[in-house]
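Build the 3D complex.
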Amino acid sequence: MSGLKKLIAAAGACLMLTGSFAASVSASESYDPYSYDRWGDAVASQVGYTAEYFVDGQSIQGLHDKVREIEEAKIAADPDFDPLTDEWKAMYGLKEPADLYISHDDLMYIADKGNDRIIVTDLDFKMVKYLDTFYYNGEELKLKKPEGVFVDQYTGFIYVCDTENSRVLKSDTEGNVDRMFEKPNTELYSQDLTYNPKKVAVDKAGNVYIVVKSVTKGAVMYDIEGKFLGFYGANRVEATSEIIYNAFWNTIASEEQRARSTRTTPIGFTNFDIDDEGFIYTVTESSDVRTDTVKKLNPRGANILSAVVGDDVTFGDIAPAYYSIYTKNSALMDIDIGPNGEMNILDFAHGRIFQYDKMANLMFVLGGDGDQLGTFRSVSAIESKDNMLYVLDSRKNSVTVFKRSAFGEIVTEATNLYNEGYYQESYEPWLNVIKYDGNYRRAYIGIGNALLNSEQYKEAMKYFKISISRNRYNRAYEGYRGKLLEKYFTPAVIAIIVIAIAVTVIKKLNQKGIITFPWQRKRGV
Amino acid sequence: MLDLTQGQFVRHVIMHPFEGFEDLRWKKSGSLAIATGIVVLLFIQQLAYNRMYGFQYYSSYDKIFNIVPYFFRSFGIFLLYVVCNWAMCTLFDGEGSMKNIYIVTAYSLIPYIAGYLIGTVLSHFLIKDEYIFIQTFEIVGTAWTVVLFISAMKAVHQFSFGKTLALIALTLVAMIAVMFLLVLLLTLFQQVIIFIFTIYTELSYRLRV
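Done.
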């Protein structure tokens, strides 16, 4: 008897232990994960990625030795050189890092803006290369506040935005500059404008796209020979009431009045990324403009994302007040395209990462403001590699590494199958998603579509109703009703005919006085 | 001639848009109870239209539900109209009493309520492509109500057609004015209450010292 009691007590203790263990796992992130429901209200969710660790400059292997080596060389050359200034001490770590790029040969390029250098590491943060000096026609070039770096996957050339020096360097891996892209000397590029390249990307054909701070007409575009081609992919102007008002007055104003009025200019995009198919994705950081914050551009510069998903998708936080003490809008800083076309978008205003699938459906929201692991002070760049995310923080001077969680893996699997059109195959993964997170609306839609495809209309209707997607429900209901009609059409028609005949016969009989109804009797008597 | 019960009169009025209300007036018929019942139906129709429509057409935001707007949209607007119309008709030498206006206005609403209720029921059986059938019911119901309504106003006040339209327009203006005044009154009362409360607080502090 007492043995049994002990057993039960032990089992209970075990249960409690596992229970508390599970609780501590789910509460391990330092922020509240959320997603949005059909109405755009934030609802609690699961984390799609967990913050694994973070790496600051000091923990990049080999950087310390390299800087010490330079320091000794400097002291040897110049006895007055003081290695104890704050400026030089910062060389041992990162200082305001501005950009991050992971090349196809798994090397990570960090544009260490404050220290005027590019650090190349492998994915375990072991330094591979240290680029602060470049050579061009025998001349030594030093970087000054570089803000962007890119590696062409086809040719292996490194492109560096030497921002304060107003040039973009195209160099091989050893630092030998092949070509420089400077301010285009044409009428198209207003010579009053400064030329501070911030980000650079290169397409398959070798065309170079450069985001320049003061240019709002889109990216400055060069061909492979370094010839200026024009501007690429300008944003549209948001049709605010003020702009419509101005446009109306401009149509009736005289030439002189028009010259005096303010020009309507769009907001230039902030950052971009190029996917393997050659499409360029742009993000625009603006707290008040909502049009064209995220675009997917074809080679002509036309936005094909809005053609697919329409203009009513809000990227970033839908309602800024939710799950946040701040009431500011998202400011999209960087975009990265994952292996399956996922868009990882970095929100500077709240330090959050929004991951969308290629159809612009929100998958996960990660991060937040803070000092703990997984939260940020001032995010500046994001990169992804397989199931990892790397986020650069320019105030914490560190790279935070996220790894996709078990929940994230299931959602990604289901989303990929679904987006490829394998609805039936995505059924099981979506069911698993609901087990993790009952608020995940896309899962209900996925299950509903799988059921709809296998003609289980009634079940499909149930799931579409939960996910509040009217059009899909309508389709399922159409099928359900069709089936019902098919089944009951003949009996229903026969029943109607029989009833009609019966009614006419009874009426006839009633008229002839053979049958009298109870209510007629009253009046008759 | 036309010895109809109250119930039969309702049917007669609806089916004879042009002389029905004249007959009703001539016979001094019409029931307050039935009219009130119709307004209750209007309330139910408003609720059903917003909350029980077929899911494939409309899904309401179910997280919050407040019944006050529905009260206002049915009873509120109806009573406001009756009062304002009565007030306006006294200026125009209309012959309708408040009771008559109440009754005929309610009676003329029947096709509208019926059309939308039928539409709401149908919305559970039809798909989106067949919305035209629902729409037909709703439009016919509304149009019928408009005809009945003008005819009712014309008969109850013994006006010409043009004068009836003018009266309806003026009634709408009066309704807006009344609503504006109500809002103003509420705000003023709020201020008065705050004022009194401030004096009370002030006094209670003084008395305590």
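The first strand of chain A starts at residue 34 and ends at 36.
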